[in-house]
């Protein structure tokens, strides 16, 4: 089986597992919602203030959500030791990681797309005119989040205290993504909107670097 | 093994560097005596970087060869690098308070050094949470590689904020007293010496630990 087909099969399996229970997506959406509400107490959320602080808060909420949500990516496999079964399959071991990465990317993007209008309404930010640009920033930022998050989820699954460990590993490494996505989002929401090519390129570089790194270490990470 | 003469040599180098930094180098005109801390501040940062590069090398070499000695190099270098960056983060504010009037500012270099320190503290925390040596070596090598790849991204992303840090003046056309440059180089040589001795000691400790574990396992097997 080729790498692409195997990845597709793993991706389909991940999606099927999630959409049968939908517990992960539902819980994460509620979590981000709570964070968005709580953030409103930390500053005076008028329209101008929201434009300045809103994007940072939004991305911080997504990062927290990611660091909690991605735990289950490899933990789920541990309960019935299904990862061993996946390893036995005659496929490139990287496709397991890639499939999970793609699934996590879609889950996170879905959560973000659900919560973006809620955020826009609550914080009085008009997003409809710049929706396309916002989606571009969201996509690039989320690729980086999903790529590093999935690898670290595999790392943390092998350690004790993994619930606490994953955010500890993930958040400092994602600091560049937080900065770049926040700055790009602030630019898009500015009046008039400007899409910062510098930050978009930076996000793309981050994604390429860590996708490549994941591809290089993937086979080692999944061996027994 | 660490020979006594090499330890003595490093000690003498450190004594000479201290003499150079505290007495021989001229007092800086505007900042006064407190500027002298800068010789150890900057050289510690440089040696810290060298240690983190060794973590990168050790991590890659471990994944390729599966020889635990590379993991010992990684952990030794990470600990020494964190120690050096602790020195950087402590001496920086001591210098900043009289010169800038504040202990800390979220300027580019300060923020990135702090983040770098946090990254490798996370690396050390990860190591304490995995017990089995091969597994620990594997997951920390993966995280070590990711953390090192993150260093340039952290620097670039934070760089685009306004910087308050004094720009490097070495090689900036004759304004600097040449003695200052020599003392800085001497200090760097001394901290590199300290770094080498500490890493070798820590490496030996790790090797001895592995040996003790081996004996213990053999004894347990024979006792049965």
3D architecture notes:
The complex is a heterodimer of chains A (224) and B (224). Chain A has ten helices and no strands. Chain A has 224 residues and is mainly α. The radius of gyration of chain A is 18 Å and the shape is globular. The mean pLDDT of chain A is 89. Chain B has six helices and no strands. In chain B, α2 runs antiparallel to α3 and α2 runs parallel beside α6. About 2% of the residues of chain B have low confidence.
Top keywords for this entry?
heterodimer; A: 224 residues; mainly alpha; 10 helices; globular; B: 224 residues; 79% helix
| C-alpha-based Rg of chain A, rounded | 18 Å
Mind describing the biggest β-sheet of chain B?
none
Order of helices and strands of chain A: HHHHHHHHHH
User: Would you identify the regions of chain A where 5 or more consecutive residues have pLDDT less than 50?
Assistant: none
Number of strands of chain A: 0
Rg over alpha carbons of chain B: 20 Å
Report low-confidence residues of chain B grouped into runs of 5 or more. Answer: 169-173
Report the biggest beta sheet of chain A as strand number plus sense, adding barrel if it closes.
none
How much helicity do the residues of chain A have? over 70%
Separation of termini of chain A?
Answer: 22 Å
